[in-house]
Amino acid sequence: MIFSAILKGARSRGGLDDRNDDSTVWYKTIVPEYRRLASNSLYPESKVGFMYRTLAVNPGVFLPWIKQKPEARGVRFIRREIESIPDAKRLAPCDVVVHASGLGASYLANDKNVVPVRGQTMFVETDFDEMAMVQGSHYTYVIPRMFTRGAIVGGVSQEGNLDTAVDEKLKPDIVRRVRQLAEGRLDEIDPQKHSTRDIVAFRPGRKGGYRLEAEGDVVHAYGFGWLGYVYSFGAALEVLRLVERKSCL
Fold this sequence. Notes:
Order of helices and strands: EEEHHEHEEEEEHEEEH
Cofactor: FAD
Low-confidence stretches: none
Helix content: 10-25%
Oligomer: single chain
GO biological process, one term: D-amino acid catabolic process
Distance between the termini: 31 Å
Shape: globular
Radius of gyration: 20 Å
CATH architecture of the largest domain: 2-Layer Sandwich
CATH topology of the largest domain: D-Amino Acid Oxidase, Chain A, domain 2
GO molecular function, one term: D-amino-acid oxidase activity
Family: Belongs to the DAMOX/DASOX family.
Keywords: FAD, Flavoprotein, Oxidoreductase
CATH superfamily of the largest domain: D-Amino Acid Oxidase, subunit A, domain 2
Strand content: 25-35%
């Protein structure tokens, strides 16, 4: 059971500026209250827009909570550097290995389709409590971060860029796009005053989409890119199904 202290319901408004319909919005039949927006309600430069109810998650709260669940059942976490999947088998002997190493799959699974996708965001202090996102020619969003009185604003999606430093030149552009997205509600944000933290991270992308399959006594689950939290529970259920099937053979 997922408690409201871990996930928070939020209204989300989205837009696409590189296509004329929502046929590629795969979740439109899943999320509650999904509806297309009229042309006079679209974000600037968007060709199609939609609104729906969804969930917002704060990783700083969610990850410790979800780690605690298996620990309560006796699972022990071991942090160790390994050079191969057989190393993992030797470290913790088992019948089936679940391989979910993210970007490490390019090495551990010799998967040349795995590619890092650089993202740069800012945490800003704001009471903005809706999720807002435009995708297509750019990647702009505001995601409230529960328990923080702030939000994550961004961003960029730079495939293959491995620069870990904050690109100061990007910040004014991100702020400009976010202000436009929030339609006046974030106009007073000054990155020099309100940004409490710059964030640079690398999403585990994969050309051709994620990999979720069994290979011998290994179940692979990686390459989810920026959709890791979105897919996490569904991916976990499929991993469980694959593990149980392998265990019965």
